[in-house]
Amino acid sequence: MYDLKKIVVVIGATGTQGGYVVQELLKHPEYHVRAVTRDPRKPSAKALASSVELVQANLNDLPSLKMAFAGAHAIFAYTDFFDTPLTTNEVFKESETLEFNQGMNLALAAAATSSLEHYIWSSTPDATEQSAGKHPNICFFNSKSRVTCAIRTKMPALWAKTTEIWIGFMYENFIKFATFSPQPTPSGVYELAVPLAPDSVLGSVHCKDLGPFFDFILRSGTRYHAKTIGLVAEELPESRRLEIWGHAVDKPVRFNAITPAEYVARLEGFGVPTAAAEGFTDLYGLFKDLGNAYSGEDVLQARDLVPGGFFRSWKDYCHEEDWAAFLKA
């Protein structure tokens, strides 16, 4: 019987963020994990079926989310701007509206859940506001921050039990996206060409640490309700991050600080639509200007809330990751 357990709903349970949250929750018998997926027939969903309550829901379908949230005590909610392949400028721009609508559906369904005690919303800063309009093209930040604004101003009862988490630049992006990773040159040197100064820092975190931190927030009760937390493990200069990676994989590396225009052209060479290329370039501009963009007035820092050694370092990640496929690409 799970009626004595806390029902925790996890959105995107077969994805990266939700997947690590599910992994952590399953270590603790006091939780009943309800994993939400669009397609329970896919192999990754079937693999979860024996250990969680698997339910089908779609972020574009508010009634399905209300059903999935019924009886929930806590919800981990997030949206994925990049769920739709960014094949054209139009798709990139439409994805901002789509993600905003999905985030609003999640919030509306959560607000309608009478049993809900804690809503944990994986979001991002308002990049346009942070940069005073200098970097307006970071659609994949703006869409989420607009949802947060709506929760704060239009759903005060939900905001009163919401913890907003700004998840830092994930270590895994280094291997997942060519736009953020070093590329081999004919000389065998791996070059990271980005519009940053060598000493520009990125507030970053290992995605695997999201699960334990989510559990920490749940166990903290109401302490972090109506709060925003920056989930950042390290603030390393980007050139230093590259050096650590090169040492871990035993490859020569070079940091190349290019201009924003050069970076846009570089991404277009990868087949990235111009609008998306400008968005990624503005993201680096935000990092260059602010350093840890996952901070600000009234924003708590996760590192200040947990014991030392809670988070994995970039060096740890570099030595744990299997780089074979990346180096062969």
Report on this structure.
- The chain is an alpha/beta fold.
- The chain has one domain (6-328): Rossmann fold.
- The chain is built from 14 helices and 14 strands.
- It has helices at 16-25, 43-48, 62-69, 89-111, 127-130, 139-154, 156-159, 173-176, 210-219, 238-249, 260-269, 274-290, 314-320, 324-328; strands at 6-10, 31-37, 53-56, 74-77, 118-123, 162-167, 169-170, 183-184, 190-194, 201-205, 227-231, 234-237, 253-257, 299-301.
- The strands form three sheets. It has an eight-stranded parallel β-sheet, with helices on both faces. A three-stranded mixed β-sheet has the order 7-10-12.
- Helix 4 (89-111) links the parallel strand 4 (74-77) and strand 5 (118-123).
- Helix 3 packs across helix 4 (89-111).
- The longest helix is centred in the N-terminal third of the chain and has 23 residues, at 89-111.
- The radius of gyration is 20 Å and the shape is globular.
- It starts with 5 loop residues before the first strand and ends with a helix.
- The mean pLDDT is 94.
Write the layout of secondary structure elements.
Elements: E1 6-10, H1 16-25, E2 31-37, H2 43-48, E3 53-56, H3 62-69, E4 74-77, H4 89-111, E5 118-123, H5 127-130, H6 139-154, H7 156-159, E6 162-167, E7 169-170, H8 173-176, E8 183-184, E9 190-194, E10 201-205, H9 210-219, E11 227-231, E12 234-237, H10 238-249, E13 253-257, H11 260-269, H12 274-290, E14 299-301, H13 314-320, H14 324-328
Parallel strand pairs: 1-2, 1-4, 2-3, 4-5, 5-6, 6-11, 7-10, 9-13, 11-14
Antiparallel strand pairs: 8-9, 10-12
Helix pairs in contact: 1-9, 3-4, 4-6, 10-13, 11-12
Domain NmrA-like: 5-294
Family: Belongs to the NmrA-type oxidoreductase family.
Keywords: NADP
